[in-house]
Amino acid sequence: MLARTADNIYWVSRYLERADFLARLIEASNRISALPTAYAAKQDEWTSVLIASGADETFPEHFDVANEGNVIAYLAFDPRNASSIRNCIEFARTNARAVRTALTVEMWEHINSAWIKLKSFEGRNGEPTAIDREALIGFLDFVKETSSLYDGFAYRTMLRNDVYYFSRLGVSIERADNTARVLDVKYQLLLPEHEPLGGSVDFFQWSAILRSVSALTAYHWVYRESIKPWNVADLLILRPEMPRSLISCYGEVVRWLDAIGNQYGRHGDPQRQARAIKRKLEGASIKEIFQSGLHEFVDGFITDNNGLAGAIAEHYLLG
Amino acid sequence: MSQFFDEMTNGATEPRPLYDRIAEWLRVSPPALLDSRREQAEILFRKIGITFAVYGDKEAAERLIPFDIIPRLLGRDEWTRLEAGLIQRVKALNMFLTDIYGRQDILRAGIVPSDLIFRNECYRPEMQGHSAPHDIWTHIAGIDIVRIDEEDFYVLEDNCRTPSGVSYMLEDREMMMRLLPGLFSQHAVLPVDNYPDNLLASLRSVAPPHCPGDPCIIILTPGQFNSAYYEHSFLADKLGVELVEGRDLTVRDDVVYMRTTEGLKRVDVIYRRVDDDFLDPLVFRPDSALGVAGLMGAYLAGNVTLANAPGAGVADDKAVYTYMPDIIRFYLGEEAKLKNVRTWRCREPDSLKYVLEHLSELVVKEVNGSGGYGMLVGPHASKEQIETFRQKLLSDPDGFIAQPTLSLSTCPTSFPGGVAPRHVDLRPFVLSSADGARIVPGGLTRVALKEGSLVVNSSQGGGTKDTWVLATNAK
Amino acid sequence: MRARVSLQIEASYSEPTRSANQVLRLTPRPFDGLHVLDWFVGVEPVATLRRSEDGFGNIVHSCSHAGPLEKIVITAEGLVETQDVAGVARGLNEKQPLDLFLRPHEDAEEIAAFAAKELGGEKDRLSRLHLLMAALHEKLNHAPSDAAPRPVADVFADGEGSAREIAQVLVAAMRAQDIPARFVSGLLLDGAEGAAFHAWAEAYIDDIGWIGFDAALGFCPRDTHLRLAHGVGFFGAAPRRAAISGYAEEKVEKRLTISAARQASWQIQQ
């Protein structure tokens, strides 16, 4: 398979996964900012959203204030933001178009239709000042649906060969990165000193974190108790049954890299690095993580994950 | 409308026998049915993403080529004549190119003026003295054909470089079978869907001689922003070959490789849809990012076959076109089976004088232009446009030819709420391979959708129709 | 004159490049005014140099390198003997018809007008060529450089250019006069300042053949001009064309050393 084809396939998945994540992030933050002031530390919410989405560096070039309207406009529709949802779908479609024939007809037609539909949302929501909340919810639903359907079509229609493996690999790497970003931005809220005192405002922050990785319901199924910060961290990092946890993502990463290695009859750097990261997660306990520093742990993970993404590019995608 | 040959009625009240069933279908179908079929077609085309980019039109970066649901019919007898003419013509084109880059007999014999060849940018001195594998230069040729009466086919233009449109020929057929299966089954339509197979066989036949067993064939595209990208990906899919861009290839020691997830893989045949100018930055335009450095070296060393061959464009020049009857006679000792449209070469003073005096009646074309850009259609032009062209002609007469405004034939075409005749042309695709020529019965019918318009180019508001070559004769 | 020529081209990249391909026209082809006693082209890191002849009859070496690559060094050296033949290039392997060298030059309207004005009513072709060379030598200041040439119209408007830019302007002017003209690249044997490569134009005159005209220096090539290659324009005769994959910047340094060759002499025991 052409290296560039693999690269395009991989990035279609990454962009769509990122769009999905951004949609959930905006949704969760929207809930917090809708609360009366007493329940949430509002002023920081949108700034932290910017940081979690990696848009905090470029945002000040275009806006003065990080308020709801500006941040949503920038994250959702702004073509100047390289990782806006709009651009994610656009880039995903551009990548898909470049390798149209490597996708199944269903996948291509779906992503092409989504791109066409995107244009209709753009017309209505382009202005940063007036965000129509109802239209926004419709849009975010559309984004989540776009990613889910793409995944579904991939699962249902693709041949199980390297094309499929690279597509899945993109999802897992991106998903691990997204979960880690949320942890990185919100880690203070999860530290022990934030012991819950009945009806703490933090409750809403924690549930927002869970929401942003669509794990609020999952949390209750797994822990069967009220939301505790260390449980939130445990769920997002170490719980294999939670599909967006770091360990779960790395189970997938290793699986797809092994599948690729087996098909080509050669295992190399990417496989070795992925296994090492997975082992690190498997050997960790939430207690130790808190002792040695949650922030340091997540930081280290992000570096490792990026390192692996680089090795994958070097080994397979650049040819 | 009586001045034009209408392929359905030929000016009579009764349709030509060939069109009996179409006429009947049009008579009984309520306009709403045609409208709904047309809309269905558009939705399907957009969904598959059959679009093309229009140069200089940023707003509509991706546009659909309108598709007309009324097929255009040819009888078997008509096709047989056309086919023989096409094969003859393409054979002569290949012999001409072999000669130009080789012995140059035709120049010495004074049949074609030498300056016409060598002053043309499309003549590639780099190819001089090199023969193309199996003496095939234009593996895929698109010959534009028009009719003005029931008898003759005229060649409007030869396309020897990277003719496009074949994907529309195939997709239009799929669309018709899906939208109007009843009408389709009433006609015995000769199939075109073996075109990709024929193309693959042709490309395989010209693989370099050293190539062991199964040659690695690829399609080279300038990328997804090219106006014909859809076609490139369509063909790669149908042929089951990789669609590569220049950056996917690398040349080491005169061998071309593509970069794959498993390392470098040797490439034997490249169906390139990249123009000569952009093929290799070491030989042609140095600023080209679309090509592959060292590709020409590999080609000249015989390690890879390029289809079509670099330099083939010198044969489809509009000025060389005017010599085609002489070229066919020179190499084949036969008269051309397909007629040329009467053409004035503005480089000849008498012709120039005539053309300048009759600008408002003539179609003036740039010798090196393509796609209907830089073209004057006299009868439809404003005074200013005519004056602009007069100046262009005076300053560079060599750059232009002129032809009479052709009375292109018309075919019934469907519009919201009705059916009306519109002008059409036809581009059949001729494949040349080591074991002979192949043509599938049919081609791309282009239709000028604007009333009275004679410009069928898709970039200028033209549409397409499915072309049905029937198993029955027209007469 | 007899000279030992040594040219070194060192190309270094801002970041390691994944691959590099090159075409070199660094080997002089002998003709009536040039005897090549020995000549060598080499490249470092070592790669297969394939020698061929291009469509103009120039001697071409091509090579490819797989990366990662930080630097490529090309060496061309040898011993040549040149003669002053008044610029006439006779005895080359001419492969192309004159018509090719009459291809109109793009954007040369201003240059054409200038040429027509300077020549007035002069009829004799040789005199016209000398007049053109002198006029352009007068009009264009020679600023030696090995950079890729700008479009002729820009150079002409600027009033200053490298030898290769001036040669292209001269070619355009000659063609505007309907005289077959071509671009020649080469080296100067009497030492060049600011640029390793030199360039001039050749025009065709019936009964004589191709004659060189150097508008940068203002005279016809002498025995100090070492002819390397010719083409329709610069790019067909360029001494080196290279392309790398990736986005690294290429920095090129050239070193040309010429020494007047000594007569062979016996070594004697001290």
From TrEMBL, chain A:
Pfam families reported for this sequence: Alpha-E (PF04168)
Top-level division of the source organism's lineage: Bacteria
Domain DUF403 per the UniProt entry, residue ranges: 1-317
InterPro entries assigned to the protein according to its UniProt record, in alphabetical order: ATP-dep_Glu-Cys_Ligase-2, DUF403
Matching PANTHER family: BLR5612 PROTEIN, SLL1039 PROTEIN
Protein name per its UniProtKB record: A alpha-helical domain with a conserved ER moti
UniProtKB/TrEMBL annotation, chain B:
PANTHER family: BLR5612 PROTEIN (PTHR34595), SLL1039 PROTEIN (PTHR34595:SF7)
InterPro entries listed in its UniProt record: ATP-dep_Glu-Cys_Ligase-2, CP_ATPgrasp_2, UCP005522
UniProt organism field: Rhodoblastus sphagnicola
Name recorded for this polypeptide: Circularly permuted ATP-grasp type 2 domain-containing protein
Cited Pfam families: CP_ATPgrasp_2
Domain of life (superkingdom): Bacteria
Residue ranges of domain Circularly permuted ATP-grasp type in the record: 71-448
From TrEMBL, chain C:
Organism of provenance: Rhodoblastus sphagnicola
Pfam families found in the cross-reference section: Bact_transglu_N, Transglut_core
Protein name: Transglutaminase-like domain-containing protein
Classification via Gene3D superfamilies: 3.10.620.30
Domain spans labelled Transglutaminase-like: 155-217
SMART domains for this protein: TGc
InterPro entries listed in its UniProt record: Bac_transglu_N (IPR013589), Papain-like_cys_pep_sf (IPR038765), Transglutaminase-like (IPR002931)
Signal peptide coordinates: none
